[in-house]
Design goal:
Length: 208
């Protein structure tokens, strides 16, 4: 069982992550949503429709792991169910950052299959568990839908076949990256975005 983490610490970490992500240009308009696990049963999540570079404490609320607000009148992110499903699937997931970068959006549309495979980059070592550039990194790619319940079920069924690591892509939509805490989620997000940019450049050059 996890010791609960004070909400104020996680709020500040998510607000800070939002400013950084916005500075990278990975959350244009009101795109993206973030969360952090408070305990075994609750998470802090961004309210729907907020600009992620301008978050304050008033833009975050507590939800249970079914995505229901707890003691808040704010409307949680439209994609809360994906966050809470990740917390349900893996107790080691402590934070989830969802972004809408150009690279993740375009690459996910260029990749026709259910998986994006990446290999040969030193930056693969930014992803937990990787000690070499050589092994393939495989990221799940899901079709986009506005039905978050359905997408959460697809995520769970893919996870049952094989647990996913680091993140997944939603086609034409963006990236979900996670980690044991906000710092690790940020590292995975940054590493994956770098790898996507490289892959996109390779494909633009006709190498792949
Ligand atoms: C700019 S619209 C993007 C939304 O449809 C959605 O994909 C998104 O990431 C943000 O939704 P939100 O409800 O603000 O968390
Ligand atoms: Zn989104």
């Amino acid at each position: 069982m996890r010791a609960p983490i004070p909400s104020a610490i996680l709020s500040s970490a998510l607000i800070d992550a939002g400013r950084w992500i916005d500075a990278q240009g990975w959350c244009p308009a009101t795109g993206g949503n973030f969360s952090a696990r408070l305990s075994d049963a609750h998470a802090l999540v961004t309210a729907s429709g907020r600009h992620k570079g301008q978050l304050t404490d008033d833009d975050l609320l507590t939800v249970d792991l079914e995505g229901n607000p707890v003691e808040s009148r704010l409307r949680p992110s439209a994609e809360t169910l994906l966050h809470t499903r990740l917390y349900q699937l893996e107790s080691g997931v402590g934070a989830v950052l969802h972004t809408h970068s150009v690279a993740s959006t375009v690459l996910s549309r260029l990749e026709p299959g259910d998986w994006l495979t990446i290999s040969g980059y030193e930056m693969q070592k930014s992803l937990n568990g990787n000690t070499s550039h050589e092994p393939d990194i495989r990221l799940a790619v899901f079709e986009n839908t506005q039905d978050m319940q359905a997408l959460a079920e697809q995520l769970a069924s893919r996870w049952q076949q094989m647990p996913l690591n680091w993140g997944f892509l939603v086609r034409g939509h963006g990236l979900y990256a996670w980690g044991r805490d906000v710092n690790e989620a940020r590292r995975h997000l940054e590493g994956l975005e770098f790898l996507f940019t490289c892959e996109l450049e390779m494909r633009r050059l006709g190498v792949k």
